[in-house]
From TrEMBL:
Keyword Zinc: no
One Pfam match: Fer4
Top-level taxon in the UniProt lineage: Bacteria
High-level lineage: Bacteria, Bacillati, Bacillota, Clostridia, Eubacteriales
Entry keyword set: Iron, Iron-sulfur, Metal-binding
Coiled coil regions, renumbered to chain: none
Originating organism: Desulforamulus aquiferis
Name of the protein in its database record: 4Fe-4S binding protein
MF (Gene Ontology): iron-sulfur cluster binding; metal ion binding
Domain 4Fe-4S ferredoxin-type: 59-88
Length: 164
């Protein structure tokens, strides 16, 4: 339960998920932001107007999944690292999950890491496909992971076992 251990419930997660139909159309953002807090940079960062306007800054964000193209711009603006992008169309067997990441060293492209779930439990191997770390992102990198499709809604962080 989130207030006690920081882990959202299945009901929390279900409430913010896009439909299967939307997932089948390509990358889309998911805001796993489950508490009412005074915060709205995600709204201001989305140039497509896909994050609905807040009437109260304490509201939780709501995404118009039809307007979102999964660009990920909002991810590095979120101080809670609570936004992820999932692309279920990456390949027949794998999905892409974009993960906000503020640890060093950054992983390398093609590196195999261990995907973990929201509770920090290991799920299995994942491959780093891309690392975005521009100046505009202000040290919140986006790491694109290719994961087996059945783990795309569970993979929300990763462990780097190899030390450079
Ligand atoms: S991923 Fe891009 S289009 Fe989607 S909500 Fe974030 S900034 Fe907007
Ligand atoms: S920026 Fe992040 S923490 Fe703040 S309201 Fe948006 S999703 Fe939640």
């Amino acid at each position: 339960m989130l207030p006690l251990n920081g882990i959202p419930t299945p009901e929390d997660i279900a409430a913010v998920m896009p439909t299967e139909e939307r997932l089948s159309k390509g990358p889309v953002a998911i805001t796993e932001c489950f508490q009412n807090i005074p915060c709205d940079p995600c709204y201001h960062s989305c140039k497509r107007g896909a994050i609905k306007a807040f009437t109260d800054i304490n509201e939780r964000p709501q995404i118009d999944f039809d307007k979102c193209n999964g660009c990920g711009s909002c991810m590095s603006r979120c101080p809670g690292l609570a936004i992820f992008v999932v692309d279920a169309t990456y390949s027949d067997s794998e999905a892409l999950v974009k993960i906000p990441y503020e640890f060093l060293p950054l992983p390398r492209v093609n590196q195999i890491v261990t995907a973990v779930n929201r509770a920090g439990e290991e799920l299995g191997n994942a491959k780093v496909v891309k690392v975005q770390n521009t100046k505009a992102q202000d040290k919140t990198a986006l790491v694109w992971l290719a994961v087996p499709k059945n783990l795309m809604m569970e993979s929300r962080h990763f462990l780097v076992k190899e030390v450079r």
